[in-house]
Design brief:
Layout lengths: L4 H9 L8 E4 L8 H16 L3 E5 L1 E3 L9 E4 L2 E2 L5 H11 L8 E6 L4 E8 L14 E4 L2 E4 L2 H8 L7 E10 L12 E10 L8 E8 L5 H4 L3 E5 L2 E9 L12 H5 L14 E8 L10 E8 L5 E6 L4 E4 L3
Parallel strand pairs: 1-2, 10-18
Antiparallel strand pairs: 2-7, 3-4, 5-7, 6-7, 8-9, 10-11, 11-15, 12-14, 12-16, 13-14, 16-17
């Protein structure tokens, strides 16, 4: 995301409403009073304790109570009175511990006027505001957290963060299909650990629309329905890190027993599985659903449209 004057104009022109990840603050939100400094720390720490996001200092919301979260106009900050360094120092000195990788982007309105875009990452621990309390984002506001919520956030750094990523390979896969000149599609499933600790035990569940799969594959897997659409359920674990596909023989699979539960280190990704798609399948707006479990981490789940999946052309 590029933060510039056009970015601000687009937010206002499109009446982009505040949300969990976006907060507007008028110029008077920055002040040298103790109360305002604590308010800054409260709002910034709440964003980090939730899912991260952006706070913009220098945009005023409309006075209409029914539209109170809609941006009305640019309300710039006097940079001579409140510099970027001043704001950085307030955030750094009033929030414990210090939030890593926080970024402040100044957008100049004039020689003396500026708007500050504060980008706040999702934290791996709980951050305490200047009033010695913990806050979270809720209904466009910063509200106090319960004790169990603080403990839950503090546990973020103690477990892996596992995501599934998908790539569709199109081409002639001669190692799997012989004597055919037709275009074949393979869905490759990757596992990524974006956390700070390794994952030892990983289990995944992937639901793919049945119409996307060849008949010989459908008959071997469990059928389920989602929104009245037939899906096929694929399951597996980190024994699949050796490129074992849905087409592998029992002999192939027996060769990986000594590699079961190979840990996935932080920052790395590996191939989980490869699944043959039907030759005539259309990559439309139907979705793949997935969820994954890893060690003591909470279950992670998401969806992705087939048409959004990255495509790779491989003629072999």
């Amino acid at each position: 995301m590029k933060y510039d004057f056009k970015y601000l104009e687009d937010l206002i022109a499109n009446k982009f409403e505040e949300n969990l990840h976006l907060d507007y603050k008028a110029a008077e939100a920055l002040s040298r009073s103790d109360g305002k400094r604590k308010e800054i720390s409260k709002d910034v720490s709440a964003m980090a304790n939730s899912d991260g996001g952006v706070i913009i200092y220098g945009i005023r919301e409309t006075n209409n109570k029914e539209l109170r979260y809609i941006p009305e106009k640019i309300d710039p900050v006097n940079r001579n009175e409140f510099s970027k360094e001043w704001l950085e120092q307030i955030i750094s000195s009033h929030i414990q511990p210090k939030i890593p990788n926080l970024q402040i982007t100044p957008i100049s309105i004039s020689d003396s006027d500026v708007v500050y875009v504060v980008k706040i990452p999702k934290g791996d621990t709980a951050f305490m505001a200047g009033d010695k309390r913990y806050y979270k984002r809720y209904n466009f506001e910063s509200v106090p957290m319960d004790d169990y919520e603080v403990k839950d956030i503090m546990n973020r750094a103690t477990h892996p963060k596992i995501f599934l990523e998908f790539v569709i390979s199109e081409g002639k896969e001669t190692d799997l299909f012989s004597n055919s000149n037709e275009t074949k599609r393979i869905l490759y499933v990757y596992c990524r650990n974006s956390g700070k600790v390794y994952a030892k035990f990983i289990n995944y569940f992937i639901k793919i629309p049945a119409k996307m799969l060849p008949e010989q594959l459908i008959s071997n897997y469990k059928k389920i329905e989602f929104n009245e659409i037939p899906y096929i359920l694929f399951t597996g674990d980190n024994s699949n890190f050796l490129n074992i596909s849905a087409h592998s023989t029992e002999k192939d699979k027996s060769n990986i027993e000594s590699f079961r539960n190979t840990p996935l280190l932080p920052g790395l990704k590996r191939l989980f599985a490869s699944i043959q798609l039907a030759d005539n399948c259309v990559l439309d707006s139907n979705i793949i659903l997935w969820n994954v479990y890893a060690d003591n981490a909470p279950m992670n789940e998401s969806t992705i449209k087939l048409s959004y999946i990255e495509k790779q052309i491989n003629w072999i």
